[in-house]
């Protein structure tokens, strides 16, 4: 099966590059694939052995499209999209507001022939589903589209499903379903023969009755529908679809579900845009006035939590991703948390690490709660919290979170019997990640659920760049105030009696500056927050920065003097150990730049002058691809590669050289280098 996915997937993805050259991004390509693939599958269903009646007009059929090329093909394709968008039922759902973004008929023809070369209906659901999901993943990674907001890491989704352990013949809802990740993961779990042996009726229920999703955005809704169809959920020939396009929060539910799995959209407020009397667009907070909600608020996450509670059966269970503010916000936040604690058994919280979502800096958690019958007692007796954030470092590319990363949490969660759990935290093990808090503990904390107990190895680890800028500003203002007080003291001897400095010694400003530099580099290179263009290929670090052994350039004598000419280097804080008068074995930079890299400490420096080195632990790195790479850019990129250097070994060959990285296009690199050098200069001026 893997070979089949690889072969077909390569064919599908191969056409993305020429389309990208024409300005058609991954999202537009995926949309066109959806339109054409749906048409092709309906054509296959109309033929033997299926012989199903097609609701496609004869002049809009796949065969009509297939026989054309050039301008007639372009005209026919536009006509088909416009015609099908006006039809009712499933055709309207797929083709609503559709248009052709492929301007060159020759490229359109290539896509049509590629799709026509396969039998998609008879192809295994896991094969065609995997191909489509790979395209969705690329769509999410295309930061220019902003599509990453609709995607939750698959490793997290699968873990939430494993913990919830849905049963067959039950209903599952995602009220903010995006492209359907939670529903697909639950489908795979329920259809896994190693977990459940489903009979014919159960399989039919799984396909047609189990899942319900809601999605507001037209483009995402369309992708979700196709994603589910390709995986075998729902019937492509039926007008009954598993997904509804609407605003989940508008009205009371008319249907209840056994399970809810969701990652509602982040952002503290809902808003709507309208045109005022002057013809200008304005926006205002959108407040949902629902009588079944516990409180009225414009906070989207709090509204979604109330909605999720309202769609659960009395025996229903939920796993929901929420941002930190839901666990600690006052006012409406207090009301929602108290009601959840009182009316449900909110038994588990998973604190998530940063660096796992496409939007950088997101701080989130997963809360697990079980609904209960109405009672005069608080249903939550204790909350188990797993701290998977403190001292955990993940990135989307270089160190992604995998499903196995969460194995310990799954083991601690103990889905088979959540009443039988064992803490890993204790007085003897204060860094244990799994800890129980009683309801009294929660009440004593003013019903705030943002509880943590593990000391961070790096106190700035979970702060983003803006957080750090704010701290720097506060500390800089304290320094400015101290200087003003000192000036007053010097100019007015009478103020000696009244003078009282509130500014204690602060050694953290240099650390803050260094951490801010780290975060800036991470945002630019790893998170690509500016949506800069990358080259299409990924590169091996060893190809970008081939190394030279330092043997010929090691200094023979430690008889250093400032009167000598040639510097002796080490990448550590000392940098220049001294100067030597040796004239042999000098590394000549020749108007270029190199990086010296300490193989044991992983420290590095960018060098633009001739030098000798202290020891054989130094690697000399040069620019291996000068035609597409700026050496300053490569140096900054190197700083974002993080490895654990807690053992005595040579790290360049074993860790760094084998990493795969994406690099920005050369014209973008020059912008990056210019910004970073200026930003770092300003930050250094602060201290």
Question: What does it look like?
Answer:
The protein contains 24 helices and 20 strands. With 687 residues, it is of the alpha/beta class. The chain has a 9-stranded mixed beta sheet. The chain starts with a helix and ends with a helix. About 3% of the residues have low confidence.
Mean pLDDT figure: 85
Largest sheet: 9 strands, mixed
Q: How many individual β-strands?
A: 20
Backbone shape: globular
Span between termini: 59 Å
The helical percent reads 25-40%
* Class by alpha and beta content: alpha/beta
- Rounded to an integer, what's the Rg over CA atoms? 30 Å
Uncertain residue ranges: 271-277, 493-505
Q: What topology, given as strand order, has the largest sheet?
A: 3-2-1-4-7-9-8-10-11
Task: State the helix count.
Answer: 24
List the helices and strands and how they pair.
Elements: H1 2-14, H2 16-21, H3 26-45, H4 62-66, H5 70-85, H6 90-95, H7 105-116, H8 125-141, H9 154-164, E1 172-174, H10 181-191, H11 200-208, E2 211-214, H12 218-231, E3 243-244, E4 257-262, E5 271-275, E6 281-285, H13 300-310, E7 312-323, H14 324-328, H15 332-343, E8 344-351, E9 364-371, E10 382-387, H16 407-413, E11 434-438, H17 439-444, H18 465-491, H19 495-498, H20 508-526, E12 534-540, H21 541-544, E13 547-548, E14 566-569, E15 576-580, E16 594-598, E17 604-607, E18 612-613, E19 618-621, H22 631-639, H23 651-656, E20 660-664, H24 666-686
Parallel strand pairs: 1-2, 1-4, 2-3, 4-7, 8-10, 14-18
Antiparallel strand pairs: 5-6, 7-9, 8-9, 10-11, 12-20, 13-19, 14-15, 16-17, 16-19
Helix pairs in contact: 1-8, 3-7, 3-12, 5-7, 8-12, 9-10, 13-15, 18-20, 20-24
């Amino acid at each position: 099966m893997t070979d089949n996915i690889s072969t077909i997937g390569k064919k599908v993805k191969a056409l993305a590059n020429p389309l990208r050259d024409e300005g058609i991004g991954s999202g537009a390509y995926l949309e066109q694939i959806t339109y054409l693939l749906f048409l092709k599958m309906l054509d296959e269903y109309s033929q033997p052995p299926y012989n199903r009646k097609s609701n496609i007009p004869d002049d809009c059929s796949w065969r009509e499209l297939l026989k054309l090329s050039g301008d007639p093909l372009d005209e026919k394709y536009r006509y088909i999209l416009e015609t099908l968008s006006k039809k009712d039922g499933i055709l309207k759902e797929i083709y609503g507001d559709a248009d052709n973004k492929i301007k060159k008929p020759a490229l359109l023809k290539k896509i049509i022939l590629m799709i026509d070369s396969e039998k998609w209906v008879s192809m295994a659901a896991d094969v065609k589903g995997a191909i489509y999901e790979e395209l969705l993943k690329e769509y999410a990674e295309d930061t220019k589209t902003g599509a990453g907001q609709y995607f939750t890491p698959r490793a997290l989704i699968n873990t939430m499903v494993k913990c919830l352990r849905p049963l067959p013949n039950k209903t599952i809802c995602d009220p903010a379903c995006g492209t359907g990740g939670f529903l697909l993961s639950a489908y795979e779990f329920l259809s896994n023969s190693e977990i459940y042996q489903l009979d014919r009726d159960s399989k039919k229920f799984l396909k047609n009755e189990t899942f319900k999703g809601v999605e507001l955005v037209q483009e995402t809704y369309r992708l979700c529908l196709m994603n589910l169809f390709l995986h075998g959920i729902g019937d492509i020939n039926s007008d009954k679809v598993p997904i509804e396009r609407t605003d989940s929060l508008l009205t009371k539910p008319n249907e209840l579900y056994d399970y809810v799995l969701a990652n509602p959209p982040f952002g503290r407020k809902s808003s709507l845009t309208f045109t005022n009397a002057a013809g200008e667009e304005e926006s205002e907070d959108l407040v949902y006035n629902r009588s079944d909600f516990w409180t009225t608020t414009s906070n989207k996450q709090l509204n979604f939590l109330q909605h999720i509670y309202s769609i659960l059966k009395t025996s229903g269970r939920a796993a929901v991703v929420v941002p930190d503010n839901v666990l600690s916000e006052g006012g409406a936040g207090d009301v929602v948390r108290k009601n959840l604690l009182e009316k449900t058994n909110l038994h588990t919280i998973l604190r998530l690490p940063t660096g796992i979502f496409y939007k950088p800096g997101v701080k989130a958690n997963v809360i697990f709660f079980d609904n209960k019958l109405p009672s005069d007692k608080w249903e939550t007796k204790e909350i188990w919290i797993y701290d998977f954030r403190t001292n955990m470092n993940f990135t989307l590319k270089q160190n992604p979170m995998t499903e196995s990363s969460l194995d310990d949490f799954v083991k601690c969660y103990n889905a088979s019997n959540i009443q039988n759990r064992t803490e890993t935290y204790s007085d003897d093990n204060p860094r244990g990640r799994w800890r129980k808090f009683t309801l009294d503990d929660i009440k004593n904390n003013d019903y705030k659920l943002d509880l943590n107990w593990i000391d961070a190895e790096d106190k700035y680890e979970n702060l983003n760049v803006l957080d750090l800028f704010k701290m720097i500003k506060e500390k800089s203002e304290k320094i400015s105030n101290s200087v003003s007080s000192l000036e007053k003291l010097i100019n007015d001897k009478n103020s000696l009696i009244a003078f009282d400095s509130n500014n204690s010694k602060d050694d953290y400003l240099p650390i803050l500056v260094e951490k801010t530099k780290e975060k800036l580099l991470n945002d630019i290179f790893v998170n690509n927050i500016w949506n800069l263009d990358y080259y299409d290929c990924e590169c091996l670090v060893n190809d970008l920065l081939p190394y030279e052994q330092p043997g010929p350039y090691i200094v023979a004598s430690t008889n250093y003097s400032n009167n000598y000419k040639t510097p002796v280097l080490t990448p550590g804080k000392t940098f220049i150990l001294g100067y030597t008068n040796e004239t042999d074995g000098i590394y000549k930079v020749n108007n270029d730049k190199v990086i010296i890299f300490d193989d044991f400490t992983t420290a590095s420096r960018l060098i633009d002058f001739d030098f000798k080195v202290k020891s054989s632990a130094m690697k000399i790195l040069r620019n291996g691809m000068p035609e597409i790479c700026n050496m300053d850019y490569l140096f900054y990129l190197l700083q974002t590669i993080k490895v654990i250097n807690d053992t005595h070994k040579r790290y360049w060959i074993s860790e760094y050289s084998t990493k795969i990285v994406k690099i920005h296009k050369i014209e973008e690199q020059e912008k990056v280098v210019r910004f970073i050098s200026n930003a770092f200069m300003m930050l250094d001026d602060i201290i």
